Every structure is written in structure tokens, then in C-alpha cells.
Amino acid sequence: MSRSIPGTWLEWLARKDPLDRLTPFGWRGALAFLFAFSLLSFLLCGYFIAYWRNADMDFMVVYSALSLNDGSKRAFFDHPAYWTILSVEFWLRLLHQLRLLDEWTLSAIPADGQRFDAAMTNVIRAGRIVAAMTAGACLLGFAVLAKRIVRDRRVATCGVFAFAMSGGVQMHLRILRSEMIAACFCVIALMLLVIVARRGSVLRPVALAVAAWLCMLGLENKVQAILLIAAIPAVLLPFGGSASASVGFWRSGARAWTTAAAAAVVAACAAATAWPLVSAGLDPVAAAATGLHPLLLGRFGTYQILLWGWILGCMVAFAVQWRVSPPETLAAMSALVAGASLGLLALYVQYDARDAVIVLNPLEKMLQYAKASGADGQLQNSVGLLLSGLLGVFMRYTFVLFSSPRPTVFLTWLIIPGIAYVWRQGAHQIAVQATVLLLAAIAIDTLGVRRGLKLEYFVFTDPLIIIAGMLLLDQARNLWLHPWTFTVGAILIALHVAISQAEPVKIAFKGKGRESICEWSPEYLPRLPLRWCGPSASAAGPEVK
């Protein structure tokens, strides 16, 4: 055995293909390594840190979950973090039923000092497990679909590694934030649509329904998802091909039109069922009560109609370009409406009219986040704001001018010349696909600069950059044997590992206390008094490890 190890090692080093050397564990081994590494990072710089270290949003989400388990209404949270809160609520209840957690309701949290710290430590750690499981599920979904998008499994392995070690995923792995679920649903929807756009099938409209359903669920968790949702139709346009044409069933005349008509009836029924939610969400009185102002023409619902027109228009353009039959196009549009309606109906699981208002008016809510003075002033200064945001994105993508815990920016250094390379090689469609993905990421990031383009928002655009890189690497096969390929790949791997862990380590060891929580706790935690926020309470109590 001792002799076989050096031989195996030398054999591995002697492999000519750098991709084999960059992916020594294979597909399953790489997934096992990524899950194990992420779990270790979660335990060291997440699970065991002080329960109040990531209070924004850990406390807010857990507070709402505890309220639900106490039989009270869900505490309104304007992200709205709908599925994050419900998943934590279900998890706490499950742990209690398994006799693993006593502090599963708000009334079960004791008020006195040490017992309060112990109870909050238990419940926050339980919530952090939900965050880790969510990130793991998203990673698995990305991996399954990435393998279908590119031809070479080693390229897919590199893409999955970049996604798992992206700054956003590694940060969301250990904190309860609303962005992870929202981005995950929308990115999986995009990847699913990329796959079905390439090849026609009888069930392709069903895939559109699933994608629309996922996008609506994502929007219910974080309003920023609307930016990625709006970009998806344009991103998909260059992903068609000769195999994208409708299959024989959708060109069969009476059968095809009958199926399309049935799909339209189903869509109409689903839309009618969801209409009360739409009406409640666009009610100007309810919207004004949440502090929202109309974005266009002084009326709520204007740009939403334009967005639907944009989506349907892109579907028509795709159908014309890639020879999708009229019956399938109609069925796909109907499936889109049905899927979005079913996703919206999920708000009835824990109904609050304010959730409908936030979900159906996402841009108004985003402007409120950015502390905009009003729609008119925002539109007048739109050019200057966009240019300022674009400059901010450019500086961040250089990393030198504006550093950030985002290793994915280093991929852009290769993607931009990679686009030029594959174009010169004659792979024009791949170059256009990568360009559109990169431009979509830049556009979304440009709008995100208004809120500082925080680490938590990277999960919306990093996957677009990674998918673009996967497409280019899969196409540029003559570069696989280049002498610099392994060196560049190894450097990228090291940068991803190091930079992705920088922010978690920084947060775990930062010396900032918990006094800042008192600034927002009366609004978001009205029934959970924090002992260090009271007039006679110590603001510097012992840190819970």
C-alpha cells in the first residue's frame, strides 16, 4: 500500500488535462467536500458564536417564528421574509415535538438574565441550522441543474465550487436572511428555463409554470428578487437553437390548440382565484398605510402591467426567433400566468394584507429602503443615479479600487476576455449568452449600489456570472491544455476559499457589543424585552459563547 500512494500521486500529477487536476475528487467527491467544508465553516464561525452577534436579522426572523408558535399572528416584517419565517417556525415546532427544544414559543423565553441568554442561545442556534440547511439545499439544486447546462461534468464541478464558495452563499450559510431563499428560487427558475429553452418538448409549458411559481415564491421572500425576475426574459432570448423548435405534438393542429385552450382556462381560473390578493396588494389605501408611494403616473399597478407586457413580449420574440408554434406559445403564456398565480396564493398560508402590498409593489418598497424622497424626484435624478451606480459596480469588479468579500469578481477578469476569445473562434451564440448574463449581473448590481451592494445581495448576481463562466469554459476546450490553465484555476480556487471565509471570520471575532440592537428592538421585537436595553439593565452583560 505504501508503494501505491506515491505511484497514484505521480499519476495524478502527470495528467495532461488541467481540469482533471483541478477536480481531483470527481463530481460526487467534490460535492461531499463542499458540504463538509461548509459544515465545518458553519460550526466554527456561525453556530457557536454569540446568539446576538447577527441579531439583524436573526432576532427578527426568530421572533416572528416564536410568535407564530405561541398562537399569535406573525409579526409583520417588510422584507417580507415570508418563507424564511415559516421555515424557522416549522423547524422550531418540529424540534419541540422531538423533545430537542423547549424554547419554541415566545412565552417560553424566560425574562431573567442567565436563563434568557441560555434560551435565546438555543433558539438562535436552531434557526442557524435552518440557514445552513437552506444554503445546502440551494447548493444541491444549483449542482443538479449545472450538470445539465454544460457538457463536461468537470466544468460543472468548477461552477458548483465557485457558487458554494461565493461570498454570498458562505455568508448566508450562517445567518437568517431573506435573500438566500429568494435568490435560490429565482436562480433555479432561470437555470430550468435555460435547459428547456434549448430543446423542445411536450411538457415545456409545464416547466415555465414551475419557473413562474418559483419566481413568485422568491419575490414573497425578498422584494429585490423583482430585478432578477425582470432580467430573466431577456437573458433567455439567445439560449434557443435548432432543437428549440416545437415538437410534433405542438404542431398537430386540433390537439395542440385544444391543449392550449385548456391551459388558458386553467390560467384564467388560477388568476381569478388569486385576484383578491392582487386587489388587496394594489389597494392605494393599504399601500399608503405601509408608507409606499406610486412609482409611475400616480397609480399603483402601472409598471406591473408593463412588466407583464415585457415578459410576454420576450416570449413572442423567442417563439418567432426559434420557431416555437403559436399553440405552444399560448400554452406557455397560460402556464406562466397559472404558475405565478399559484405562487401568489401561497400568501394565504399566513395571510397578512401588508405582505400582499409589499410583494405586489416591490419597486416602491425598494425605493423606501433606499430612502428616496418620492417617485418624481427619483425619476428626475435617474440618469445620475444610474451612472453613479455603474461606476460603483465597475470599482467593485476591479477589486483593487473597491475591495469586497466577493471572490466571484475575479471570474469577470476572465469572462470578459473569454467572451472575445470564443467570438473570434466562431462560437458567436455562446459569446452572446455569456454577455447577456454578465450584463444582467451588472445591471442588477448597479441598482443594488443604492443600498451599498451589501454582501447579502451577491447571491442574486453571482450565479449569473458563474453560469457565464461555465458556458465559456465548456466552449473553449482548446484552452484546457494551455500551460497556464492549471495555475490560473488553482489561484482562483485559493482566492475563493480565502475571501469567502474572510467575512465570517471577521464577524465571529469582531468586538462590537450588542447595544446597537436596542435601536430597533422596540419596533421589531415589541414582546421580547432585551435585558441589556432596559434602563436598569447592564448593557455589557457576559457574552454567550
From TrEMBL:
The keyword Transmembrane helix applies. Keywords: Membrane, Transmembrane, Transmembrane helix. The chain crosses the membrane at residues 25-50, 126-146, 179-197, 225-250, 257-277, 297-318, 330-351, 383-402, 409-424, 430-448, 455-473, 479-499. This is Glycosyltransferase RgtA/B/C/D-like domain-containing protein. It comes from Bradyrhizobium amphicarpaeae.
